[in-house]
Design a protein that fits this description.
Distance between the termini: 39 Å
Number of strands: 6
CATH superfamily: Hotdog Thioesterase
Number of helices: 5
Order of helices and strands: HHHHEEHEEEE
CATH architecture: Roll
Structural class: alpha+beta
Strand order of the largest sheet: 1-2-4-5-6-3
Largest sheet: 6 strands, antiparallel
Strand content: 15-25%
Number of domains: 1
Low-confidence stretches: 1-23
């Protein structure tokens, strides 16, 4: 059993419509969470809602204000990375500053496995009531990379093998687990799963490649 972090609590609160915020959240994180709630509400909204045009105008006014005050995208791509934790804040899976993310928070357990809990709504729907397969693959890719990083071998994805074993439902707490397998030179292998009540919904096996010696982020 893992300890639920403030971000994990936020994840559940979003699905429950809870407006409260964990104390550790920054003001920017709180704003991002508000956008998550808005996006979820818009997707669920009926197309013939009587105030849809008025609400759209209000949202556009706010978006214009935020955009006018924001630095350029090229600047933010660099500064949104978290040098302390190694987790990019703009990650569509784990990013606290990305409204697309739930976000998923992964913890390293005593046996080296990384684990986190997450749930998804209609924003990430594929088949009716189920998580989109591409979103599942994205989540597992991040989990694989996290497991490798915790093992001391961070790298870039070279290939993924995804197996969809059963539908992954929306609005249910899912467990994401991953673990590093081995390393052969610069090649690193790991596995990850999305589980529901202990049953595996999606399994991924990944091959990653570590950076060459002397490689720096500025070389990108």
């Amino acid at each position: 059993m893992i300890e639920i972090s403030p971000l994990s609590a936020l994840n559940s609160a979003v699905m429950a419509g809870d407006h409260s915020q964990p104390r550790e959240m920054s003001q920017a994180d709180i704003a991002t969470n508000a956008v998550r709630r808005l996006a979820e509400a818009v997707v669920r909204m009926s197309a013939d809602h009587p105030r849809v045009s008025t609400m759209a105008e209000r949202v556009n006014i706010l978006a214009d204000e935020l955009d006018s005050r924001a630095p350029s995208a090229s600047v933010r791509v660099e500064t949104m990375w978290d040098p302390a934790g190694g987790v990019p804040k703009h990650s569509p899976v784990a990013g606290t500053r990305n409204a697309v993310a739930r976000p998923l928070v992964l913890h390293q357990l005593a046996d080296g496995v990384v684990e986190g809990r997450v749930n998804f709504g209609v924003l990430h729907q594929g088949p009716p009531g189920c998580l989109h397969g591409g979103i599942a693959a994205l989540v597992l890719d991040v989990a694989l990379a996290s497991a490798n990083a915790h093992a001391g071998y961070p790298g870039m994805t070279a290939s993924l093998r995804i197996r969809y074993l059963r539908p992954t439902p929306l609005y249910r707490e899912l467990t994401v687990v991953a673990a590093h397998i081995d390393r052969d030179g610069r090649k690193v292998r790991s596995w990850a799963e999305i589980r529901l009540d202990g049953e595996v919904c999606v399994r991924a096996d990944g091959l990653f490649v570590t950076a060459r010696e002397g490689f720096a982020h500025s070389d990108l």
